[in-house]
Amino acid sequence: MAQDEPGSLVKGIRVRKVLLPSGGGRTFFLGNFPIQFCGPIISLSLSRSKGKIGDVLHKEYPFRANGLKLWKGYEKIKERNDESVIPIDVSNGQRNRAYRIVDTILKAFRELKSSISVDRGDRDNINIILLGTRISFSLNECETKRRYLVERRTEFKPLYEMVYDGRPQINWEIYKARNSCTNSERASSSSISYIDAVDNRLEKQIPTMITELYKQCCDNEIVAHLNYKKQVLEYQLEKEEQRAKELREEQQQREQKKQANRNALINDIPAHADRWFKHESLSRYASELEASLATYADEETARLLRKYILLVRENADNCNPINYIL
After folding, report:
1. Which among 23, 27, 4 has a CA at the least distance from the CA of 14?
2. Residue 254 in this model has a pLDDT that exceeds 70
3. Per-residue pLDDT at 79
4. For labelling alongside 210, which of 56, 76, 133, 142 has CA 20 to 30 A away?
5. Residue 319 burial (C-beta neighbours within 10 Å; 0-12, 13-18, 19+)
6. pLDDT (tens digit, 9 = 90+) per residue, 192-209?
7. Which of 34, 69, 104 is the last residue of a domain?
8. Cα gap 305→161, rounded to integer Å
9. Quick check: is 189 in a domain?
10. Which domain covers residue 150, as residue numbers?
């Protein structure tokens, strides 16, 4: 008989685990359905030896095919080439120590309110943004040359190999802060390295390296702020120069327009003189016609003469050059 044992929580509900007997090829019956166990219980195979039972199961549960899978083994993926991680390259003996060092460093930067991220890509990486400055590091174990024995020197290969020597080393890359460099200088950076030593363990150097990195980030931020102010002033000066240039161009255009009007007046002086003499002649002519109105007794004739005098004066006004000069 199957026995019950305490199970696990599934969606907040505790489920009891039922221990099934290990078969070895034996057949058990679940109601009227025969169930065959093969070795350790991995799957249950519903027998379809009886046509009626098989047809009923196939019609009601067509997705089950010939059996019902209860459990499938899970194989852990050892390496994931599509995901980047923090760049750590040490031997197995130094792995836990390297993890502790990196964990301490990341906690220190979190206390400084910095952002930490790992970008997707083919290469392992880590980016720390502190006061606008991007910092990156890699932790690796130093290597030393190990010579081969004398009897192996005849082989056509190097006489030594590189092996880990147990001294972890951390390399820092500090990139310039925003607004602190031009586009051509954007990729430049400075490097700092710290190596483990017998009298100065790498763990004890963490406060020193954090202080030095923070100092450089502050310097970069100050430079970036000054450069930003410089860019603002340069922009304001450029804007003022552009406005002054526009004002000079407008003034020059006004002067050119005035000179053109003056030249036009000079060129039109003879024509204006002719218009003036014609204006004076027509004005005198109109005045003489008005003086002769008293000699006409016929009212209709006087009316027509007055209308003609108005036309003469209108023509005299059109000939007046003052209207074109002013």
Report:
1. 4
2. yes
3. 55
4. 142
5. middle
6. 889 888 888 989 999 999
7. 69
8. 130
9. yes
10. 88-225
Quote the pTM value. Answer: 0.51
Number of other CB atoms surrounding residue 308 within 10 Å: 12
Domain count, the chain: 3
HSE, side-chain direction, 13 A CA sphere, residue 148: 12
Together in a domain, 92 and 215 = yes
Same domain flag for 94 and 141? yes
Least confident of 102-106, 140-144, 243-247: 140-144
Percent of the chain scored above 90 by pLDDT?
17
Q: What is the mean pLDDT of the chain?
A: 76
Determine whether 301 is exposed, middle or buried from the number of CB atoms within 10 Å of its CB (0-12, 13-18, 19+). Answer: exposed
Question: Distance of CA 200 to CAs 93, 142, 162, 206, Å?
Answer: 19, 15, 24, 11
Do 217 and 177 contact (CB within 8 A), yes or no? yes
| DSSP 3-state of 256 | helix
To 10 degrees, the CA torsion angle through 216, 220, 225, 231? 160
Q: Same structural domain for residues 104 and 188?
A: yes
Contact criterion met (CB below 8 Å) for 316 and 286: yes
Q: What is the pLDDT of residues 84-120, one digit of tens each?
A: 578 888 888 888 988 999 899 999 999 988 888 887 7
DSSP-derived pairing of the beta strands 127-130 and 33-36: unpaired
CA atoms in the 13 A half-sphere facing the CB of 176: 16
Instruction: Give the pairing type, strands 133-147 and 88-89.
Output: parallel
> Token pair of 18, please?
């039922």
d(CA 231, CA 240): 14
User: DSSP secondary-structure letter at 153?
Assistant: T
Max CA pair span of the chain: 155
Q: Strands (DSSP E) along the chain, which ranges?
A: 3-10, 13-19, 27-30, 33-36, 43-46, 68-69, 88-89, 115-117, 127-130, 133-147, 160-175, 189-195
Question: 173 and 287 in one domain?
Answer: no
Are residues 220 and 277 located together in one domain of the fold?
no
Residue 28 has a pLDDT of 53
